[in-house]
Every structure is written in C-alpha cells, then in structure tokens.
C-alpha cells in the first residue's frame, strides 16, 4: 500500500451500469462516477452485453475519479464487485472477446438445463455446487459458447481461450493480460465449482464438455489479484479484493456472523443469509453459496433471488403510467384503502426462488368496483414484501432442519429502501425488525472493505463491522391476524398463477 494513501477505489460493474467509487478510511463514499451499459436483446429471452464496452466504461469511470483531484498515489488498492454469472469468453493472447457476454438473465440454455435434469443430474449438481439446473448460472452459458462459436472447443482444449465472469474479465484487462483469476464467491455461481471442496468439479466439466484449461484460478476474496498495468492510471495499483455483488453487499452490510441476513432491493431482490461454516442444503429450492472466503476459510450462505422488485415500480411508472416517478409510489401506497385486498403476483418473467417457475405469468386478484390506482400501487409494492416473506419462510425451514437459528432481523439496501411505506410494510409482513443502514452503497463498500482488509487499510472484519450504522430500524406494527390474512391471500394468489406444484 502506498504510504499515506487515503482511499480505496471500488469498481461496481452491475447489470445496467458501471460505477467507480472512492471510499475513505471510515468507509464513507467520497466520490462516484457512473456509466450506463447498453443492453443487447438478440432474440426473445436472450440478453447480452458487449464485454469491450464494459471494459472501456470501467476504465473511463476509474480515470474520471482519478482526474477529478485524486492522485493515483492516493489509492491504497482496488476492489472489484460485479454482476454475477454473466459469462465472457476471450482469447488468452490478445484479450479479444469471442462473443458478446451472455448475461445472467439470459434464458437460451433452458433446453440444455431441461435435458440435464431429465438425465437426473440435478441432485448431484445441487449437492456439489449448491445451485439448481437453471439457465441463470454460467456453466450452461459457457457450454453454449463452446458449441456455437466456431472452433471454440478445440481452441479451448489447447489453452488458447479464457473463460471468466465479469470480475475475471476486468482483472485480466486491468493487469494487462497477466492474471486470469476469480474469487470463490464468483466461482460459486458458475455451476462448475464444488463449494465443499472449493475446486472446479471434473464430473460437471465433463457433462458440459468444458476443458479445464479455460478456467481461472480461484482465490480468496481478499487476495493479491495483481497490479494494474502502469499505462492505465499512470502508476501500478494492486487489485486486492473481489466478490460478486450480492456477496459484496453482505460484506458491506457487515453480515459477518451466522444468522445475519441482508436483502438488496434494486431491479430484482437478492436475500443472503450467513450460515457460517455450515453448508446448509436447501430443501426449499434456495441456493447454497459462498458468502466470502477469507484466509482460506469459507463462510457459506443461503440465497433467495427474486427477479422483480424495483422493476415492478418501473412497470407501474412506464407501462401502467400510474405514477410519474418511482418515489411517487410511496405516497400513493400510503393513500390506498388500508382494507384493500388487491394482490398482484408480479410473475412478469416467471417466478424465482422458491418457486422457480419460468412459465408463470403475472396477475392481479381481488379488485372491486372502488379499486383505484392507489390500491394497485399498494399491491405492487406489497408484492415485494410477500416475496421476501416467502424467502424468509424457506430460509427459516432450511435453518431449522439444519438445527440452526433463523434470522431475527433483516438489513436492507438498494434503491427501493428509500420508500418508507415499503419499509414499514416489509417489516409488518415479515413480523421481524428491518434495519436500514446509514450507508446504502453497500455493494461497492463491500468490495472496498475486501481490498482494504487485504492491504491493511481497514482492519479485521470485526473492525469493519464497527463502521456499520443503522440509520433507521423499523419495528412490526401490524397485528398478527392481519399479517396472517394478508400473507394467506398472497399464497392463494401465487397458487393460481403457478404452472406446477409449489414447494411451500
Ligand atoms: N422511492 C422508491 N420507491 C420504490 N421504488 C424505488 C424508489 N426509488 C427507487 N426505486 C426503485 O429502485 C430501483 C433502482 O435501485 P438500484 O439499487 O439503483 O437498482 P439496480 O442496481 O438494480 O439498477 C428501480 O427499479 C426503482 O424503480
Ligand atoms: O447487477 P445487479 O445488481 O442487477 O445484480 C445481478 C446479480 O448479481 C445477478 O445474480
């Protein structure tokens, strides 16, 4: 670490934008640069990003911060956090991508997943990787690239190509092609990584026809990921911390103890529960994943992923035109008839955890002659609370089966948590306290903490946890009978849109 360095530079490469932030020693964000990312939809259900565009935007936002008064010598280290599962294939010698990156949302490998399921491989995949046979994860996307890019498999076998999630791609580019590495959290989302042994799994690689020579080295989240090429920023800077965005948010929320849980409400919602050293297998179709790996020690988590959270509010604004800004949803929901029993099941692209029903479609139930915009907005926002309760129920059941305590409170972040009506409703539907931190830039902060812990800029996880401050704690106010009645109506409504048997 350069003497007297004041900041950690955190790169947050997300689905819709690329951001760079500077954090000081107290964990406060000082400055931010952001660039939107082009979404490419070549066919129905396909989603791609231009990997070169991601790299150029990353360079641009980092340079933007460094030319705005902060000298590169002032940077102690770089942390990287990223949209997970998104898959890049590039030429080892030139760094040239062979295809657009296939984004986590892309469904093109649904058939391959169904075939593997029909062959009875899902339980082995789940036991080894903690994941399900769903197109969401990188493994089948990489298999698709090897099958569809001319000569790719032959070249991959010769070691001429590199596979990586976005973190690997950025590490490779930042180090001028010297380092091909990832961290254990990103590896745990590929479907190729055995989270028990912390090694790439030869059997799964065989099923998908993926040569080992393609794969990055898997490191701890705090590790030496190499020095940036001098020409990029005028001096070399160490890349010292890496984690997938939901895991980084878990670190940023200081969920370092088993039983601590965070939920991020951006476009979608991702809830992550720290289960400590225990690799809790889910009987409720949640994911078992790596929360973080520090000093060679893996901490595991249960994760629930919901595809639609803030995106439902965007739908109210852009398609239904019931509101003119996301923020307006708060006043309208508060205005709704409190006895309204309108329920929206937001299965616009199917339902994620714990249902995993890609064919379910959205529906509104329970409307009466006096139902208006306010009741529909309320139902839309409340559907995010109900979905979180579904995840909480599934997590509680899995934890109980493992003989572990279920989470007592929930730490939240992401754009939607600015909505106080949503916060109170979430608290009421969960029947558990919800805590909103003072710093809600938790994803970028988590990557900064990881890099900073590696180079001695921040102390231990315990020191970092002392920085976490609650801005507002919400306590349940709804009476139990109402909570039960409302959640019961949600369960019935979901039952009516599912195309197959629910697990709950
Ligand atoms: N006051 C609000 N009430 C409800 N939803 C909101 C509010 N403010 C922002 N949002 C929603 O939050 C989302 C943006 O959150 P953000 O964390 O920036 O998402 P992402 O990182 O996925 O792009 C949008 O979908 C937006 O509709
Ligand atoms: O980029 P985000 O914030 O939409 O997060 C994407 C997730 O990592 C997908 O698993």
UniProtKB/TrEMBL annotation:
Binding residues annotated for ATP, in chain numbering: 15-17, 267, 310, 314, 415
Example of a GO biological process term: glycerol-3-phosphate metabolic process
EC number: 2.7.1.30
Annotated binding of ADP, by residue: 15, 19, 267, 310, 415, 419
Top-level taxon of origin: Bacteria
Domain (Carbohydrate kinase FGGY C-terminal): residue spans on this chain: 262-454
Metabolic or biological pathway: Polyol metabolism; glycerol degradation via glycerol kinase pathway; sn-glycerol 3-phosphate from glycerol: step 1/1
Keywords, sorted A to Z: ATP-binding, Glycerol metabolism, Kinase, Nucleotide-binding, Transferase
Record domain Carbohydrate kinase FGGY N-terminal: where: 7-252
Regulation: Inhibited by fructose 1,6-bisphosphate (FBP).
Residues that bind sn-glycerol 3-phosphate: 15, 84-85, 136, 245
CDD domains on file: FGGY_EcGK_like (cd07786)
Binding-site residues, glycerol: 84-85, 136, 245-246
GO cellular component: cytosol
HAMAP family noted in UniProt: Glycerol_kin
Family of the protein in this entry: Belongs to the FGGY kinase family.
Function: Key enzyme in the regulation of glycerol uptake and metabolism. Catalyzes the phosphorylation of glycerol to yield sn-glycerol 3-phosphate.
Protein name: Glycerol kinase
Organism, scientific name: Parvibaculum sedimenti
Name of encoding gene: glpK
